[in-house]
Structures are given as structure tokens and as C-alpha cells.
Amino acid sequence: MALRKRDTRRVVRGKVTAAPASRRPDPGPPRDFLGYGADPPHARWPGDARIAVNFNLNVEAGGEHSILEGDAHSEDLLTDIGFPAYAGRRSPLVESVFEYGPRVGCWRLLRIFKRFGVKISVLGVARGLEMCPELTRAFIEDGHEIVSHGWRWLDYHQMKEDEEREHIKRAVAAIKKLTGAPPVGWFNGRPSVNTRRLLVEHGGFWYDRDYLGDELPFWVRVGDHDHLVIPYSLETNDNRFDRNTGFSTADEFARYMIDCFDLLYEEGAERPKIMSVALHDRLIGRPGKAAGLIKFLDYAAKRDRVWFCTGRDIAEHWRKAHPPSRRDNAGDPQ
């Protein structure tokens, strides 16, 4: 009879950690299954808002896989046309899909958000922002936040630590050069177990967005520092337009966002939360999809006690209203 392998994990107050083992690589931070549990804190959003609505626009063109950037293959993720990655070959149509974002989609979205007076977080891949500095200036002139979406739009799960550390350094330097200030927020999208530790090691970051498991910000201890995590969403996200796998029409997008908004707004009478809405310039920037964004904005803007905010706004509020139990050591941006 085969023997069952012994489970060497340890469970401590809702967190699972790996038991010590010889020659085991560092598994990274422990998991937390409890979070705030049954009694989350009252967010105390500005203006006694019942909901914080945070739009995050992913700007990735120029940072995706490309032979021109020295990569081994073309991009195949979130292209909306379903083309595979081609080893050693450029994919002209895929490149054009990404180029639609900075050429057309972003400008349409800038006009839409200006119409509603809403400030957003621009999750900018630094290499891509370098490709179109005119667009980056337009984001800044309209008062939007620039969040670092990494140096390149890559999967960092298996990247070597030293290379990832260098990518963080290059991303911060590029955004500082383009905007005059380093980013205080970070969103990788496909982080490694090292990413958060490397961000704290670099310094200057108030928060990161690489977490999907909550609806409120929370503090984590990273080494000797308290670090803020603001949850993101791959669910209230226009990525479901990709090849019509989730949303096929603007009405479907608007209906889903309105349903989410309505429930959070209702719950917000007692327990206000964040509604994080994720967008991509090459997806929601298309007119047939952008119409759904307009419908949602028009609906949400007519309700009272709604706080439209950036990630930085949330971080500034949370640091003041809900400081960590230990003194925050993250410091100001460098």
C-alpha cells in the first residue's frame, strides 16, 4: 500500500506557512485566508462616501513581447484577435492591436473621463510610456496618476530575482524622467513571490495592487516595513471583452459594472468598500466598447456619496485614517 506523503505545512491563525525543509528555496510570504474576517473596518471614505470607485487604465503598448525588443516571440495575451505567439517572428496585426491604444483608444478615454470629471490611475508599462511621451504628458496634464506597471509587460513568476530588481529600478527611473516624479504605486499583474519584497527594498512605494482577494486596503509586514496593499480586480475588468469570452457588447459590460456598483453601494451604508474597475486602452478604447463605459459612468455619477478616486488617493486616505499598528516605515517617495 502506498504511503501518503506527510503534510509539512503549519496553520497559524488563518495563515499557512511552509515548514522548514533542507535545501528548500524561499517560498515567500505566508498566505492569509482570514483578512479582516467578519468585522472589517469602516473605510471612512472622504465625504462619508458609501463606495470608492477607482478606474485603472492599463497602458501596455510597446512593453509587450516583441522581436524588436529582443524577445524570442511575439505577444499572444489580450490581443482580442486570438493570434498565437510566433517564435522568432513579428506579428504585424498583433502589433497593430496594441498600437491602437496610444494612437486612438487613450485619447478617446481621456475625453470621456474629462467629460465626467473623473481622475484615474494609469497603469503604465514604463517601456511603453517611453514610446509615446506625448500621451504620458496628456495624462499628467489632465491630473491622472501614473502607476508603474513594470518595466515590461511580462510574466515575472520565473524571472530571476536580480533581473526583476533591475526592472523595478528601470521602471521607476523611466517614469521619473517622463513625469518629473517617481511613482508611488505599483502593479505588476503577473508578480513573483519576490516582487513585493523587492518594491520595499527599492523604497518610495506607498502601495502595490498585486492582490485580488479583498475589497479594502490592508497592511502587510515586509521585513521591517509596513506596506499597503490596495486590491485590484480581474473580474470588474474589460479583459472579459477579449475575443468575446465574457462581454460581447457594451450593454453587457455596463450591466455587470452597474450590478456590482449597486450591491457595493447598498452594503456601503454600513461597510463601504472599493470598486476597482480595470480597463485596457486597446479594448475599452474601441467605440463599440467605450459606449458601455459611458453608460456606467453616467449611472454612477448620478448617485450621491460616491468617491471617484485614484490609487494614490486611496493610499493617502488609508495612511491617515487607518495607519498600521506599527509605525509606517515606508517613507516618502524617493
Number of strands: 12
Main beta sheet strand tally, sense and closure = 5 strands, parallel
CATH topology of the domain at 46-234 and 310-321: TIM Barrel
What gyration radius follows from the Cα positions, in whole Å? 20 Å
User: What would you give as the CATH superfamily of the domain at 46-234 and 310-321?
Assistant: Glycoside hydrolase/deacetylase
CATH architecture of the domain at 46-234 and 310-321: Alpha-Beta Barrel
Structure description:
The chain is an alpha/beta fold. It has a domain at 46-234 and 310-321: Alpha-Beta Barrel (TIM Barrel), CATH 3.20.20.370. The protein is 33% helix and 16% strand. It has 8 helices and 12 strands. It has helices spanning 92-116, 126-131, 133-141, 161-179, 195-202, 250-267, 287-301, 311-321, and strands at 9-12, 15-18, 31-32, 51-59, 121-124, 145-148, 185-186, 207-208, 218-222, 225-229, 273-280, 306-308. The strands form 3 sheets. Strands 4, 5, 6, 11 and 12 form a 5-stranded parallel beta sheet that branches. Strands 7-8-10-9 form a 4-stranded mixed beta sheet, with helices on both faces. Helix 1 (92-116) packs parallel to helix 7, helix 4 (161-179) packs across helix 5 (195-202) and helix 6 (250-267) packs parallel to helix 7 (287-301). It is globular and about 55 Å long. The termini are far apart. The model is unreliable at 1-10 and 327-334 (pLDDT under 50).
